[in-house]
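Annex B, item 7. Sequence and structure tokens for protein A, then protein B.
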Amino acid sequence: MTSIDFIVQKRKRVDDDDDDDVVVAVAKKPAVLTTEKSGENKAKQGKISATQLAPMGCNLPRTKNSQSLVDVAGFFPLPDGSVLEILYNVLSKDDRDEYVALAVANDERVQGKGGFSPTPRYYVCYGAEPYKFGGAYQKTIPFPDYIARTERKIMQKYPRLRTLRRWNGVDTLYNGDFNGSGGISAHSDDEHPDITDVIGYSVGQTRVLRVRSKHNKDQWYNVVMPDNSLVVMSGPNFQRNYTHQIDKLGKNSPIGARISLTIRYLAMK
């Protein structure tokens, strides 16, 4: 794998009227990039309407005595000093609806693949350099204005993000066209040594984020993510010590659409 060296640059926000700079991490050398053939999977964008992203419940997974079901907003310190934070009703109704309207119109997503088979998710990666996602380095595009605006609104609820460097992000859509699945396997966002915070903003169907210790198989946290919720995985050791995944839907669970926006941040230097 090609090594990537990073520098820090200040750039003007393209969507701001003021003169504030945004600090971003930029690669000195491009990574080896493997992408799908030009135009491949572009025909299938997973198109949905805003009404399909109306709030919708799901059957919650069964939990053992050693597992914690987190279904309330709050600040949850973990044994290693990391923090799991959950915020509900993050955006106002108008701001949430504006985000959804612009998100469903986003035509940059491509269908993901699992091995040789397509997955029920469509995604686009944002950032300044290629990012390894879905088992391969994917091309990235600049963050669109509507996501930058949403990020600033999230910062009003979670101001810690103002002290960090935005690195990259992934916008993922599930169109509800699957049977009892739609999960993401356990993984860690540990590709960069300075990564400290990962946020996930979710709209549409309720899903469960499972956070699991890499060192204690009995330490699990099942985090309920309803519509208009934000999960923050915070701390320099979070991605080193924990994995996270989206649980599959049960056989009898209703199936709905969902959009997840993940943004990763680096420690300020």
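Protein B:
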Amino acid sequence: MKRNSYLEIAMDISREARKSIMLSLLYAISQLSDEEYLQKAWVERKSPEDFDEFTNNYLREFESMNKNYKFFGLSEFQHEKWDNFYKAYHYFCYNNQYDDNPELFIHSSEWREIMALAQEVLKVFNYNKKPNCYRLDRLYPTGKSIVACKSLPNYRVWIRFDDGLEGEVDLSHLVGKGVFAAWKSIEYFNEVRLDPHSETLAWGDEIELDPIVLRESLITKK
């Protein structure tokens, strides 16, 4: 399932929410830049997220940031580095000769180029947090995981996060736009569910909303 990009969901999020999105993507890039992490996470499989899942979760978000860099406040120099990284990673995902097997490609020249480009991105953002494949943060409430949801009239949903924050979110402004055309059928909208992997709202195999934006909607409303 492909998660709908942040900017397909909301263009009026606060500066703090944009910062949170940026940090989450930089953390993902830090994973790609760290050979030791990748060895443990993808080859030794000590992370619940393998290469395919990582790509499915982040490739579109990398693209969204690349296209909408001005909205997120990236300088032209930062965007140049991001663009170089995104294009190389995107090309590798669709054209590698290793059957998407990290054990085969992690030490390849093609992957080392991606790692180098990822490190350049981190450098221009002064980002130096080391990735942790054991995901210890998942043992505690993160405020990023939705644990309960329920559809409401007029294209609203009630949601609760793992840290207790809960409330209603109005999604009516999305109806009919792009993939959200499916919501013109209120019966389909009412089939909202929690995706067990991403821990956020999903409809069928096509629509998945980002929990950061949904959380921001609740906080702004309050």
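Comment on protein B: Residues 6-12, 134-141 have pLDDT under 50 and may be disordered.
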